[in-house]
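Follow-up to my post from last week.
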Amino acid sequence: MPRIVQKFGGTSVKDVEHIHKVAKIIAATYEKNKELAVVVSAMGHTTDKLIDLAKQINNDFNPRELDVLLATGEQVSISLLTMALQSLGLKAKSFTGAQAGIITDSKHGYSSILEVRTSSIEKSLAEGEIAVVAGFQGITESGAITTIGRGGSDTTAVALAAALKAEWCDIYTDVNGVYTTDPRNLSSARRLAAISYEEMLELAASGAQVLNARSVELAMNMQVPVRLRSTFEPDDIGTLITNKMSAPSYTVCGIACDTNQVSFNLKIRKRVNKKTTGNNNVELHYLDGVSKLLNRFQKLGIHIDMVTLLGKDDESAPELSFTAHKQSANKVYAEIQMLNQDLGEPDVAVDSEIVKISVVGNGLSARRGLVSAIFDVLSEASVPVKMLSTGDIKVTALVHQNYKDKAIEEIHERFCVYPPTDVRVFAS
Amino acid sequence: MPRIVQKFGGTSVKDVEHIHKVAKIIAATYEKNKELAVVVSAMGHTTDKLIDLAKQINNDFNPRELDVLLATGEQVSISLLTMALQSLGLKAKSFTGAQAGIITDSKHGYSSILEVRTSSIEKSLAEGEIAVVAGFQGITESGAITTIGRGGSDTTAVALAAALKAEWCDIYTDVNGVYTTDPRNLSSARRLAAISYEEMLELAASGAQVLNARSVELAMNMQVPVRLRSTFEPDDIGTLITNKMSAPSYTVCGIACDTNQVSFNLKIRKRVNKKTTGNNNVELHYLDGVSKLLNRFQKLGIHIDMVTLLGKDDESAPELSFTAHKQSANKVYAEIQMLNQDLGEPDVAVDSEIVKISVVGNGLSARRGLVSAIFDVLSEASVPVKMLSTGDIKVTALVHQNYKDKAIEEIHERFCVYPPTDVRVFAS
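User reply:
Got it. Predicted complex:
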């Protein structure tokens, strides 16, 4: 009997009415004689509300205790969804993370799943029950309740699908698939019938909020086909995320946009290290400072991107540029100030009026010329590019926020011209 | 180091402000160098709200799933209270029922605690942490989440105190002790410094809502001294509930009143069993019916009280009387109708305008004359008694609800005249 895992996010179960709607989707799947495990998130904005409550008690809350608090959110969802399934005459049983055997490490708030011990769920499935599993949460070997961070329910679903050797994993959300770019930014955006893990990973990491990057990485490592589909269009099969062999090979599969970044530019003021003389020592001096800075970021868990160190000659000052998330901007600035001496007392420019536009596609690596083509498109459209970086299957450009729509439109117009693939090819 | 258990009910932790207040009470106890485990209920009306939510999903909800849902209530409380303790600079750790090793049977919604496996809590106490434990909930041997019914947090606290060999168990609530009768009914009610388990048990079973009867029974069996005290008067040591040896011997320790009862009176219409002839068979016929009825009640979990079967002679019809809780009145009536033939087609009278007044005291058994004295008092005051039953240390009278206050006042006036004991005798 084919076995599948379905995941429903917080907006899909935000109230009693929506829970009943989700129950009907699950019932329809179950009727097709599938063995079925369902992963569910906390209702609507429950998690945010619980965090607010914790802050009211103790602004400097303990991560272990916050996990105990947050885990109640999904526990409420699993019991209500199970009751809703039972009201349809279906056999169903709920499982907290602990009961589902989701074993994690003990990094409270951002734990990693180490193992899924499926014996209880296997037993439930064997008895014809729909197993309703709490997403986002797990338990350590020593019995502490953990959570696996934002978007964690996607990761739970993929890990469970892998452990149960499911045929595929449906991720139900409020959009009906992966688009060439966010349709809210560009109405001509097209939905993809399928996309490779690698491309999806780059899109997710570049700001496409449709799917959590960690879950895509896990799906890639475990080779779990993931189908992204909409709770509100249950008959639509959405976008299939799969390996390169099964996915069509797009030159450019999509354009992601991240508006939550701030760019930093440090102009190192050339300066002789007082303890030594000669150019070599001066150079070492500021490189040493840069290295210290990057180490500090790593230690503090501050993720920076688009790091570029512009070469120097004797005439111009060396420059360090990078982007960071708006939330860590203050911390980044403080760290730079702290290492002011080591960095050669740089002039620091912070720019928060930028957007990061990433063009992703497996074809990019094969077509090196594309990088300059993208640069050309933006240049022809008079969009000034502040920074550009390239990866294996991604090109990222930093532009002023006023050029966001124009840049996306021009690149989309020029590169996302492949004919829409017939979605039925990937139908289940 | 002396070890104690403290329990805080839902009204004591109903919001953030109250949680901080409770944390301060705990901190004050901890400062006296005690090893301390704290049991806490769900915040305010959380449990009722969750039950409402379940009913919205599926009015015929599954008891296993309801337990999964309700258990989130205390899980929220333990994490918040632990955070509040940590904000005072104290070491604290939360424990769900499962983590605290509260092992129960699998009767969802009204489970019994079978065992408390204290190793995790012992470890926590040894590390100088305050262990914050979820009341009301436990886990079966096979890992299902259970709840132990209304008032269950009191039972958790007493069971934990017994398992941890605590010196005593503080039950904090919104009243400051056990009174001779409910002060809301009679302003001259006096607070008791101490009371025996047996007396407290009879008062609780007779409608005194101050403490859950199951928890008193457990305290008696485990010989755990319980101190009932108020969250709002933390310096007041309340009432000590202890064994007969330690408690003063009152003739009458208190008067409880239960306004949630309905009385049933069945006048059996004498009737010859068609299959036989002769009085003996007729008698067997209705007694057989009564037996069937009582068995049904037992099976359905309907608790009835004050069961009396009035003797019959050939002239008058036999009568069966009993009281039941208002909530089960409809079920009781339906069962009587179903057994109508077996019961000899009785005339059924239902009276919901009654109150049950119970007079409790260890001295009652020694002074048999008291029963008639109580009857005399009510008679002198022109309070008609509808029914009277006696137990080892309890006399219960059923009167019309209009006589409630008068009956309580007269009995209190006449019997609760012992001098108030110096509460300091029982101070910790």
